[in-house]
Amino acid sequence: MPLADTRQQVLDLDEAQISAPSDRSLTIFFYYRLIVASLLGILFFSKSGPTLLGHTNPGLFTLVVIIYIGLVIASGVLLYADRPASHNQQTFLMVFADICCITLLMHASGGISSGLGMLLAVSIAAGSIITRGAHAGLEAALASIFILAEQAYAHLNQTFTTTAYTQAGLLGTLFFAIAILARVMAHQLKSSEALATQRQLDLANMEQLNEYVIQHMLTGIIVVDTENTIRLMNESAWYLLGMPEVGTGSSLEQASPKLADQLSEWDQKQHMPPEPFRPVVGGRELTAGFSMLGENNKGGAVIFLEDSATVTQQAQQMKLASLGRLTASIAHEIRNPLGAIGHAEQLLKESPDIPPADRRLIDIISTNTRRVNEIIENILQLSRRGNSQPEEFLLKPWLTQFTIELARTLSLPEGVIQLQIEPDSTLVRTDPGQFRQIFVILCENSIKHFNREREALSIQINGGITRESGGPFVDIIDNGPGIAPEHVRQMFEPFFTTRNSGTGLGLYIAKELCETNRLGLDYIPVPSGGSCFRITFPARGNHPVR
Question: What is the pLDDT, as a whole number, of residue 378?
C-alpha cells in the first residue's frame, strides 16, 4: 500500500476520532437540555417548584415550556437520524433554541431576577466547547441582545416594578467571557489535535514503511505468540514454506509441522542452533533462526527463514573465487610438467627397442597422465564458468532435442534413453547451457557405471510438477548397479569416486551447477535397483520482490 494511501487513511481516522467525541458531547448536551426542559415543565405544572416560575405570565410560560420540550425532542430525533447537518450547525440550532425559549421563560417568570438567565451561560459554554469555539462569539452576542431586548420590552411595557439593566449587562459580560474562554480553549485543543494527528501520521508512515520492508525482505519472517499462533508472516516466509493455505491467526503447525517441531526443540534444548530442513518434499532446504520476544522471553517468538541454497551460493562464490586463483597456479605448476611427461611417453612409444614389459609401464603412464589432465580440465572448468543466465523454456521440447543429440554423440543404441514429461506445458527457468552440462554429467555417470553391454542399458527421464511444492522436477533413472548406502553421503563431495579411472568431480560439478541456478539435486534410491537423480526447480509465481 502506498504511503499516500496510508496518510489519507490516517486523516480519515483522525476525522472519525474527532467526530466520535463530538457525537458523545452532542448527545450529553441533548440529554442535559431534555432534563432542564422537563424539570421546568414538571415543576411548573405540579405547582411543587418555586413560585416565581411563570408567576408573571403563566400562559406564556405554559406555551413556551411545551414548545421548548418539543424542540428538544426534535433535536434528539435529528441527532439519531441520518442528517446532512454538521455538528456545528446542530449545536448552534440547539443553543439558539435555548436562547429564545429561556429568554421567554425568564420574562414570564419575572425577568433577570428569576435567575433563569444563568441557564443560558451553561448552554453557551456547552455549545462553544462542542463547536471548538466556532460560534462562541455569535452565541454570546445573541444571548446578550435577547437579554437586553427582554429588559427593554419589560421596561417599556412596565411589566416589572423595577428595571435590571445592570444585571443584564453583567449577564451579557459573562456570556462574552465564556465565549472568549471557549475560543482560547478551542485554539489549544486544535493545536493539540493537530500535533496528535501529525504524530499519528508519522507513526502510521513508520508502521507502513516497516511493513513494506518486512514484506519485501528476502529473509522469511514469522511472528508467533506463546500458543504458536501466527501473528505475522511475510511473503518470503509464505513462499519458502511452499505457499501453504494459512495466514494470520493460523497455527504454526498448520503452516509447517517441521518448523513447529524445530521451534519446540530449540526452546527445549536451550537455544541450540537447529538443523536445516525441507518444509515439503522436493521443496527448498531452509535454515531457521529463532528469537524470543517479550519480558523474560514470554511474549512469543520471531522466526527467521533463510534459503540454505542462498547461503550456500554465497559461500560457493567465495570458494570459487579462491579456487580460480588456485587453478591458475595449478595450470602453471602442474600442466606444463604433465605435458612434458606426456610428450616423453609418446617418444618412448615410438622407440623400437622397448621390451613388451616396459611398454605395459608406458601404457600405465599414458592412462594416468590423461586422468590427471582430465582432473585439471574439470577444475579449470569450475573456476572459469560465469554467472548463470537463466531463461524460461518448455521442458519437453528442450529435453527431446537434448536426448537426440546425446544419443548421437555417445553412439547409444536406439531406445536406451526414454523421455516422459507430463504435462507437455511444463515450463522451467534456468541457464540452458549449464542445465545441459548437468544432464550430460548425470547421463554419462549412468553410462560409465553400467557394467553390462550397452544394449541392456536403460535411462528413463521423467518430469512434471511436484504436488508438494508445485515446482517442476526431472528424474534421471537408470538400471545400473546403484550407489551403496554407505557412499550416498559422500557422493557429491569432490574427488570421491568408486571407479579406479574416475576423477570424482562429475557429481560435484553437477551439484555446484544446480546450486548456482537455485536448483535442487538429490539422490533417490530405487528399490528395484539402479539410481535416480532428481532435479527440482522453484515453484513459479508469487516470488518476493528481489
Answer: 66
Mean pLDDT of 349-365: 79
Give the Cα-Cα-Cα angle 28, 34, 37 (nearest 5 degrees): 140
Highest mean pLDDT (candidates 150-159, 379-388, 514-523)? 514-523
Residue type, 75: S
Arch. (CATH architecture) of 220-308: 2-Layer Sandwich (3.30)
Q: Evaluate the omega torsion of the peptide bond into residue 494 and state whether it is cis, within 30 degrees of 0.
A: no
Type of residue found at 41: G
Residues 6+ apart with CB under 8 A from 197: 10, 11, 14
Residue span(s) of the chain under CATH 3.30.450.20 come to 220-308
Residues 6+ apart with CB under 8 A from 363: none
Q: Is the pLDDT of residue 203 over 90?
A: no
Instruction: Confirm if 468 and 280 have CB atoms less than 8 A apart.
Output: yes
Whether domain 391-536 has CATH 3.30.420.10: no
| 324 pLDDT more than 80 | no
Which phi and psi angles does 116 have, rounded to 5°? Answer: -65, -20
Which CATH number describes the domain made up of 312-384? 1.10.287
Residue environment code for 312-336, b if the CB has 16+ CB neighbours within 10 A, otherwise e: beeebeeebeebeeebeeeeeeebe
Give dist(CA 507, CA 502) in Å, integer. 11
| Cα dihedral value 447, 452, 456, 462, nearest 10 | -30
pLDDT band at 323 (very low <50, low <70, confident <90, very high): low
Task: Examine the pLDDT at 236 and tell me if it is beyond 70.
Answer: yes
For 452-464, letters b (16+ CB in 10 Å) and e give eeeeebbbbbbbb
Distance, in Å, from the CA atom of 537 to the CA atom of 277, rounded to the nearest integer, reads 17
10 Å Cβ neighbour count for 187? 12
Torsion of Cα atoms, 95 then 100 then 105 then 110, to 10°: 110
